[in-house]
Amino acid sequence: MISPATTNLTIMADILIRNLDEDTLEWLKKKATANNRSMNAEIKALLEEYAGTSTREEAISMIAEARVSWEAEKKPAPDLMGILREDRDR
Asked: What is the distance between the alpha carbons of residues 90 and 85, in angstroms, rounded to a whole number?
């Protein structure tokens, strides 16, 4: 028997999504085209990005650390609302 700890096997899963509405499908197609990817590759990238996002607690901790750093270096805090607006406008 092969032990999982002694192998370098990667397990890949297939996912089937049923009843996807037309607007979402069109959005995915446009996003995939804009990123020069297949729709499958685009969905995979979106899922991997989402899965890698921080938890709320991790985000709060990172913000607290950044604030301490800014205060210690006497740097002004960034305009978070401006950053959010720029991100939404992309």
From this structure: 9
- CA–CA distance, 40 with 35 (Å, rounded to integer): 12
Q: Both tokens of residue 6?
A: 């002694």
Per residue in 30-87, pLDDT (tens digit) is 999 999 999 999 999 988 888 877 787 887 887 888 778 777 777 666 677 888 888 8
For residues 23 and 64, give the distance between their C-alpha atoms in angstroms, rounded to a whole number. 39
* Dihedral sign (CA 61, 66, 68, 69): positive
Instruction: Render pLDDT for 69-83 as a digit per residue (tens, 0 to 9).
Output: 777 777 666 677 888
Q: Is 58 left (phi over 0), alpha (psi -120 to 50) or beta?
A: alpha
Extents of the domains making up the chain: 21-77
